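Dear colleagues,

As part of the handover before I leave the project, I'm documenting each prediction I ran so the next person doesn't have to rerun anything. This entry is a single chain, and its sequence is reproduced below.
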Amino acid sequence: MLASVMAPLWACILVAAGILATDTHHPRDSALYHLSKQLLQNYHKEVRPVYNWTKATTVYLDLFVHAILDVDAENQILKTSVWYREVWNDEFLSWNSSLFDEIREISLPLSAIWAPDIIINEFMDVERSLDLPYVYVNSSGTIENSKPIQVVSACSLETYAFPFDVQNCSLTFKSILHTVEDVDLAFLRSPEDIKRDKKVFLNDSEWELLSVSSTYSILQSSAGGFAQIQFNVVMRRHPLVYVVSLLIPSIFLMLVDLGSFYMPPNCQARIVFKTSVLVGYTVFRVNMSNQVPRSVGSTPLIGKSASSASWHGFLVSSLSLQSIVLVKFLHPWLTQGVFLHHAESSFYGEHLAQPGTLKEIWSQLQCISNYLQTQDQTDQQEAEWLVLLSRFDRLLFRSYLFMLGLYTITLCSLWALWGG
């Protein structure tokens, strides 16, 4: 009785097990698994993948500039975000696709295969770059390694033309150990296509990408010739923010300072006016120091002009102060001294000339005459001093006008070069 009941149950269990066995596939049965195992089973990544060792392995390079992250003029450092591609042929990783379900491309771990030792000469640091562990390999053995890199590189930055500066920074790729007889470099795209390609560049930053020119060369050394490809990243700054916050206030301060020369040198209002302008220059320089890039090699033109204008204004203020001190303080003191001297002479003259009235009158007349002569001499000295100050003031005015004109012409020229 029990056997008759269990027989159909066992039949159902066997049928279900057969169905599950039919629908379940082991990964080792896939063609992709067999292909990967066959390619890497006897592969030695320490050996350059060529059958003929005299044949060089050509590595094709390509570069896309994605963004300019930072330009540090003080430390001469450029930080860029680039998309880097390198393609080479591995003769040990080719297969017949018809034998593996028409698989023509697979991904393999980069750590398991040979890879070229390409470095960047200007390399200083790599920050927050994604480490992609896989590369694509096609049936002919061509390997493509693509990865984004945030490159921190050394660059010679010139800030004289700030904010109309154009910078040219290079990224030079070369093999660190293999000579050109072993590893050669070539362009994956034509240099013209690389130069004009800005499709992936982000224009929201402070800098605008102009071009990425590229050149191939062989660097000769005692160890042999090393192939290298240099990408020159040419960029220019967006100057509108600095024109509004720096250039327009600096030109306005210079024009206001220029108007102070129309005041007389011995005018007290000129001292107050020049002092206010100097305070304005001081505030402007404090704000400028936070915005103008600092560089050991060169000083921006706007910084030089602001310093020159400040010293020029200080010189004119000192000159005006000397004029006022001379006219307002020294001249009355000299006049008062001469007056007291003649008053004393008159007093003694009166006591000595009391016996005769004519002698007393003559003494008084001599005293008045001497006083007037001294007064004329003092006035003449004051007039000569003011003439000298006026001439020096005109000289300063012309030099200041020349400096302002030269500054304006230079800025216009730099703007024209920047636009061109």
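The chain has two domains: 38-238, 242-419. The first strand starts at residue 57 and ends at 72.

All the best with the project,
I.
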